[in-house]
Amino acid sequence: MQKHTIRKFPSLNAGKGILINEGGMVMKKLVFLCAIIAFFIATPTSQAGFDFLDKLEKAVEKKLDRKVNDSIDKGMDETEKAITGQGKEEAGNHSSSGNASSSNSVPPVGSASSQTNQATLKAWSKYDFVPGDEIIFYDDLQGEENGEFPSRWDLKTGNVEVAVYGGQKVINFATDQKSVIVPLMKKQGDYLPEKFTIEFDAYFSEFCTTYTVKFWDVVSQKPPKNIPYVRVRAENVGVEGFGSTNISRSDYPYWEHIAISFNKRALKVYFGKQRVMNIPNLRAQPMGITIESRQCHRGKQALIKNIRIAKGAKNLYDRIMTDGKFVTRGILFDVNKATLKPASMGVINEIAKMMRAHEDINLRIEGHTDSDGEKTFNQKLSEERAEAVKNALVDAGVDSSRLKTKGFGESKPVSDNTTAEGKANNRRVEFVKI
Q1: Choice among 93-102, 124-133, 250-259 with the minimum mean pLDDT
Q2: Residue among 214, 314, 220 nearest 264 (CA)
Q3: Hey, which of 145, 278, 346, 397 has its CA 20 to 30 A from 33?
């Protein structure tokens, strides 16, 4: 597979940045068309000439807009590989856009896509990360303008902007100088609870790509004493003062899911499906979040997306017995589909473990969406997602007779659907004791 290097180029209209794959036919066409434009600029023209120039510029931009999302991931056989801001973002388990096709459903058992997904989920069968129940910060960059600073963050230093990669909006640490950002939180002061989780997807373009997560807000909080930070490198992951774990993966470039769990004093860090750090006593109480990165070599991208911060919760079995149900936002799906994301296996594995240990517990799996898209599509999607979760639990060793499914679509919101956090809290799976 060809390794893609992406660069930021200005479009013909200033301020509308795009990311273009180097060496493609799109670039050749752009050079050719720019040469035509330069000819008209250098030649004395009539008003008709200027009209032509204006039309030509618009035609170029329209052509680019059509081409830039065509298929950076289709491999070297494609000649036009470019990226646009008009595609759908892969942002957790969104409900729908209203334009969903009939392909947005659970893949038939035995199909190639079903077998591929099952193999991927099986590889995550020992993953034990369970995200917090209540999302307190969520950013999938929906509605953000390409080339602008992400509106839900504050900048301490450096240069950060919204970009597009692989058809998805990302936060781009745009230079080889350190860039530092913090999330804009509703709660002021020390906003991290005693139990919390942090998740994001990180792009590793080469061995030295590094992301640092500090447990205080460097913009609005006073620097604390002796709070370690997490450093995630493509070659190793470590916590200051507690050592590091080497990463054996070297197939750059690639995306990886990063997850951090803190429980009163214990800290766990996950790199993909692997738990790489397990610290029983951090000897500090985290207060906030800061994320740092840079391009370790100019032009080698450092990108993150799908950032989630959530409050933790009590033991799964205790919740089932006390409340009669367990609610999770940690089971995620491909956008507008019922295809489980691998990171969902932490929750699914935990539920399967609990059900194997307590054979008297039977559960109804209930799917819920936010209000984006058509009600009928969301209803069908919630039913298919509940069924997908059931299938995963059966694959994990739970007898199918102990599981029922039901979908509620967008009909039972628990939060306001006008904010990113509200929508993320409404996109959930509930397990009800029956």
Answers
A1: 93-102
A2: 314
A3: 145
